[in-house]
Amino acid sequence: MIVSANHHASFFALLALLPAPVLAQSSAIEVGRWQPYGARSTYQRDARVPGDGALRIEPRRAAGEVWSSGAGLVIPDPLRAGEHVSAVFWARAERPVRVTATMNGAAPAYTALTVSPIDLTPGWRRYTITGLAPKDLPARSQSLTVQTGQAAVAVSLGPVAFLPGEPDAASVRNAFAGFRARSVAHDVRISSDPGVVLAGTLRTPTGHGTGPFALAILIQGHGPNGRGGYGSLSDRLLADGIATLEYDKRGIGASTGVYEEDIAALTRDARAWVTAMRRRPQIDGRRIALVGHSQGGVIAPAVAASDPMIKAVVTLAGSVGDGLPYLRRAIHNQMIAAGLAEAVVAPVVDAAGTLLQARSDGEDAETIARLRAALTDRFVAAGFSRPRAEAALSMIDVREAWRAEEMRSASDLRALQIPVLAVFGSKDPLVIASDEAPEARRALAGNPRAKVVVLEGLSHWFQEGAQTGGAEEVPKLGANLGSPRAVSLAGDWLRAVLAPARGNHVRATSGAGRKFPAVATLDRRDR
């Protein structure tokens, strides 16, 4: 999930990729689904509002633009041209203040369905704003946003319901009647490296006793990612009584420090979260699983390999390999998958490997410049235009690739004797399943509790409906990591391996009683 550096654009880019709540129309959406941005915020318990939960957004130290802080929530359903949709939500402020509520789409147009000033009071009130769709709009393309950038007081938001048309009073009452949140959100901040404070959200399930609960720590992939990328899987785990933790990468969102794609530093951060969660009374420190997507699928085995108390690991499109030989293999396989012939690919791979080895060895600037030019020429000889060749060079010659020796995912997987589930998508253009799944099987060959699965038709982002598997499809295919097959596979597996030691019976359905579709695999030999 790549987010723009511009705060306004980045917020809507984030919302466009966040998973939609799984609920029927007219059902309330719990507070934990609000995604705050631009100011410090905390989730709180508040019995005065339906669901007993609130998101408190602190005022900015210096007032910004109206939209520079606030919180948003994706409208889960598609809208038809000329259709009205209403957002009904609970809100209050420490003192009376006027803020702006909008329903609108993402960049570049930010086309608004409605822009409405609302006057908040110290008491909880229910507010309704109604917008009109100017054209057919796909699910998750529009968002409700409460903008607090110029509010000089703290604003609190409660649950939300999206209703068709302009609802009458009875419909509004029914949307919140008997509403009970499925989880409780807790804001957590921990220290990692000196000067780095990481911010995360721990969600504990309701309706499953008081704990301590098993926990899945959900680790994001490459890019400046914050919380919110695992919504569908998090919902499933919470329904099964498993707590979840998501966190902002260092330097992103509410986490301090400098953002950098440094595998070693990101692994230390994940390890710090494990240590902190074991200290919390709600969490059973003997039943912690690590779930990582993409880059997170490299970090999760690294943490587990050095921590014998980790209960289980799930990798979703996690690369499998060690050091520079892995990077050479990955570049080769991606070019072959793009349809290039071996005869033109091999010289590119050789030139890329030479450049990255020189970077690792600390060669002088003149040598690096010569090797960069040589790699660009190899791309051109392979049929790339000069601008496309330079773009490819900029993707390969990056700091994290210079640190290739820090990557030891094959060795880390080989060291594990705990339950491991490694999942790949057959249409993944980045982590090529036909190459990576066999590597995972080889690394896990000595682990009888490991399983490798390839899901047919899914791309790197685990969404249903992929055609090419390319990144351009992501905004059109619904929730990131939202494939019911992938969620079912990981959810069923985690429910089984995280069951209490006394051996609770594992049900054949989710916590909501729904059956999940069968898992499709490419290789029936998967363990």
Short synopsis of the structure:
The protein has 527 residues and is an alpha/beta fold. It has helices at residues 7-17, 169-176, 231-239, 263-278, 296-305, 323-337, 342-361, 365-381, 386-396, 399-402, 409-415, 433-443, 484-497, and strands spanning 35-37, 41-45, 53-57, 70-74, 84-93, 97-105, 112-120, 125-132, 142-147, 155-164, 183-191, 197-205, 213-219, 243-247, 283-293, 312-316, 420-425, 450-455.
Model description:
- With 527 residues, the protein is α/β, with parallel strands linked by helices.
- It has 3 domains: 7-176, Sandwich (Jelly Rolls); 183-321 and 407-497, Alpha/Beta hydrolase fold, catalytic domain (Rossmann fold, 3-Layer(aba) Sandwich); 323-404, no CATH class.
- The chain has helices spanning 7-17, 169-176, 231-239, 263-278, 296-305, 323-337, 342-361, 365-381, 386-396, 399-402, 409-415, 433-443, 484-497; strands at residues 35-37, 41-45, 53-57, 70-74, 84-93, 97-105, 112-120, 125-132, 142-147, 155-164, 183-191, 197-205, 213-219, 243-247, 283-293, 312-316, 420-425, 450-455.
- Helix 3 (231-239) crosses helix 13 (484-497), helix 4 (263-278) packs across helix 5 (296-305) and helix 6 packs antiparallel against helix 7.
- Residues 228-460 form the Serine aminopeptidase S33 domain.
- Residues 1-24 form the signal peptide.
- Keywords: Signal.
- GO terms for molecular function: carboxylic ester hydrolase activity.
